[in-house]
Amino acid sequence: MHASASAVNPGALRSRLAQAGLRATRQRLVILESLLTLPGHPTAEQVHRHVVGHSPSISLGTVYKALDSFVAAGLTRRVASAEGASRRYDADCTEHHHLFCTDTQEIIDYCDPQLDELIRQFFAARELEGFQPRSFSLHVVGTRGMK
């Protein structure tokens, strides 16, 4: 996901942090901007490499803490790789699913209202005792066929 220029201007970044209940520190602003501008679903290490170009004093630990605070505040979501070894982050918090290609390690966003309705109907028919689903996100592992 590449954010538009207006989504990464300092005022918009400060507003997003404030709406999430987070202070707009210099480190959080730089990390959030990187997360919004890096392609795909970056790891904390990829965000850190991007951030140190602008702010060399920011440590990898600071990046992890900021990303974890973004997840807790609902600004971003954590997405696992197929093996679950690396944590990747998704700045798009709208409802969508992920297709993970084991050949390229790429995570592809996938939206399908018909699939979403099938999932809702499936769980409504099951009447899970004491459980009420509020949201869902599928993580489908496979390979991307060559065209």
Automatic annotation (TrEMBL):
CDD domains: Fur_like (cd07153). Zn(2+) binds at C101. One of its GO terms (molecular function) is DNA-binding transcription factor activity. InterPro entries: FUR (IPR002481), Fur_C (IPR043135), WH-like_DNA-bd_sf (IPR036388), WH_DNA-bd_sf (IPR036390). It comes from the Bacteria. Keywords: DNA-binding, Metal-binding, Repressor, Transcription, Transcription regulation, Zinc. The keyword Chaperone does not apply. Its cofactor is Zn(2+). The keyword Transcription applies. Transmembrane segments: none annotated. Signal peptide: none annotated. Belongs to the Fur family. This is Fur family transcriptional regulator, peroxide stress response regulator. It comes from Hymenobacter mucosus.
